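Problem: given the chain below (115 residues), write out its structure.
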Amino acid sequence: QVQLVESGGGLVQAGGSLRLSCTASGHTFRMGWFRQAPGKEREFVTSIVWSVDRTFYADSVKGRFTISGDIATNTVRLQMNRLKPEDTAVYYCAAAVTAGSSWSWGQGTQVTVSS
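Solution.
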């Protein structure tokens, strides 16, 4: 388990951009972002596996969102471009310390996209 501290988020108009950041308290195997909209289940957005520098994206954000980070500082960022109202949600940073570990969660940060 690691502790996660998120920053970023806020209110933006449709078509705009936002960036989220998250720092873990220790070494991680992979980090990522999930989101939860009101009345919906938490869903996967994107993740990165440090050892192979491989990234994964939900179809709904491919081409618009980019995950990046620095394993040396245990920091991951989410650049969100061409935002849509349906991207509105609480975004959670997540991290796993090994390949078989469950996710640890950040406190969540609100992203609101107005139409």
